[in-house]
Inverse folding.
C-alpha cells in the first residue's frame, strides 16, 4: 500500500486512517487532504503516487489540476471587485464589456454569470484547435454566442464558459488577466500554491491526471448519455467543444482556464477557504453571506441533468440521494457551507458556522462531476469527530 505522510491532530486520526485506506480499498492513486478549524491546521496529508506506473511518490509540494475548484478562485476575484465597487451584481456585462451586447446577451448580468443562469454554458460553433489557450478567441466567441435560453430563467452549469465570462470582467475592470489578478490579490498575500496559469518552470511538480475508465456494469450518467446520443447537444458542446483540450498538455497548464484549469493541492485550496470560514482578511461578512446563500437551483440543472444549488459563484449542499455516493451526483456538506467540487471527486469548501475549511484533491478521477465515496467519507468523518 502506498505511503502517506504529513500531520494529523490526534482527534482526527480516524480521518487520517480513512485517507490511507482510500489507497487500499478505493483505488486511490495520489491525493492530498487538508482541514483547518478556526484557522488552525488539524490535518495536512498527502500520499500515493504521481504516475500511473506508481514509480514516483506524491510529495508535499506535488500539485495537479483541480478542475472546477478553479471556479471558486475565480468567484473570489469577482467578489473582491464587487466589494471594491468595480463590479455590480445586477449590472449587464455590456457596461464593462461593450462588445458583448446583442442577440439576447445584453440582459446578462454579473449575478447570472456567477449563478449559472446566463444561458451560455457552451460555445456552439466548432472551436479551433488550441482555442482553449487563446483568451481573446474564446471570449470573442462568447461575445457572439446566442444564449441557449432566456438569461436568468433557467439554471445550467457553465462548465467552462464560467471562467471566460467572469475572467473577462476581471480583466476589463482591473487591467490584469484573471491569473495575474488572482496571484497578486489572493494567492501571494495568503501564501497559496494555487495557480490559474502555471509557469513552465513549475510544470515538473504537476501530477498528470489519470482519467476515469468506466467499469463493467457502471451506470452512465444522463449527461454522458446526452453526449452519446447527440454530439451537437448542449452537453456535448459544453464538455468537448474547447479546441482539443488535454489537461496534461503544457498548453493547458499555462493557459488561464478560469473555470477548470487551476493547479494546486488540498493545502492550497483549504488555505484559500480558511479566511472565508473564519471571516478574516479576504472578504467581508456581506460577501461571504452572499456566497453561501442560495442564488439559483437546477431542478434539474438543464446542462448537468441532476439537481444543483448555487450561491454567487459557489456550490452549496447538493443532495441527490437516494442515488448512491458512488454515482457522484451529490456534494454532502452542511447547510450554510459553500465551496466547489472538481470533476472526478475533488473539492474545497468553507463552513463559517463551524470555522472549518476543508479540501481533498486527487489525480485519479472517479466517475461523474460531483463527490464520490473517496472524498465524501472524509467529509463525513471530520463531522463525525466534531
Amino acid at each position: 500500500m502506498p505511503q502517506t505522510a504529513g500531520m494529523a491532530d490526534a482527534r482526527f486520526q480516524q480521518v487520517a486512517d480513512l485517507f490511507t485506506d482510500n489507497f487500499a480499498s478505493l483505488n486511490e492513486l495520489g491525493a492530498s487532504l487538508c482541514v483547518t478549524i478556526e484557522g488552525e491546521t488539524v490535518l495536512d496529508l498527502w500520499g500515493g503516487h504521481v504516475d500511473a506506473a506508481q514509480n514516483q511518490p506524491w510529495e508535499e509540494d506535488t500539485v495537479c489540476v483541480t478542475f472546477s475548484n478553479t471556479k471558486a478562485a475565480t468567484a473570489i476575484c469577482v467578489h473582491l471587485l464587487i466589494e471594491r465597487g468595480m463590479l455590480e451584481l445586477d449590472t449587464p456585462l455590456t457596461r464593462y464589456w461593450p462588445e458583448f451586447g446583442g442577440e439576447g446577451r445584453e440582459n446578462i448580468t454579473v449575478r447570472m454569470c456567477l449563478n449559472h443562469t446566463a444561458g451560455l454554458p457552451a460555445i456552439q460553433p466548432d472551436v479551433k484547435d488550441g482555442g482553449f489557450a487563446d483568451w481573446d478567441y474564446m471570449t470573442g466567441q462568447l461575445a457572439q454566442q446566442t444564449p441557449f435560453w432566456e438569461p436568468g430563467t433557467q439554471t445550467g452549469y457553465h462548465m467552462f464558459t464560467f471562467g471566460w465570462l467572469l475572467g473577462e470582467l476581471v480583466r476589463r475592470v482591473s487591467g490584469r488577466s484573471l491569473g495575474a489578478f488572482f496571484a497578486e490579490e489572493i494567492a501571494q498575500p495568503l501564501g497559496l500554491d494555487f495557480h490559474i496559469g502555471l509557469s513552465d518552470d513549475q510544470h515538473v511538480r504537476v501530477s498528470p491526471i489519470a482519467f476515469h475508465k468506466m467499469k463493467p456494469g457502471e451506470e452512465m450518467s444522463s449527461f454522458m448519455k446526452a453526449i452519446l446520443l447527440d454530439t451537437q447537444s448542449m452537453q456535448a458542446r459544453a464538455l468537448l467543444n474547447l479546441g482539443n483540450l488535454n489537461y496534461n498538455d503544457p498548453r493547458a497548464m499555462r493557459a488561464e482556464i478560469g473555470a477548470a484549469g487551476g493547479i494546486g493541492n488540498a493545502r492550497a485550496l483549504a488555505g484559500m477557504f480558511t479566511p472565508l470560514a473564519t471571516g478574516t482578511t479576504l472578504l467581508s461578512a456581506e460577501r461571504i453571506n452572499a456566497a453561501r446563500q442560495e442564488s439559483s437551483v437546477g431542478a434539474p440543472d438543464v446542462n448537468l441533468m441532476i439537481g444543483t444549488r448555487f450561491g454567487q459563484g459557489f456550490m452549496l449542499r447538493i443532495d441527490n440521494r437516494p442515488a448512491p455516493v458512488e454515482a457522484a451526483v451529490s456534494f454532502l456538506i452542511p447547510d450554510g457551507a459553500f465551496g466547489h467540487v472538481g470533476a472526478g471527486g475533488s473539492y474545497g469548501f468553507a463552513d463559517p458556522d463551524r470555522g472549518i475549511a476543508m479540501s481533498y484533491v486527487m489525480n485519479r478521477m472517479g466517475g461523474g462531476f460531483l463527490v464520490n465515496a473517496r472524498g465524501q467519507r472524509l467529509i463525513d468523518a471530520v463531522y463525525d469527530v466534531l
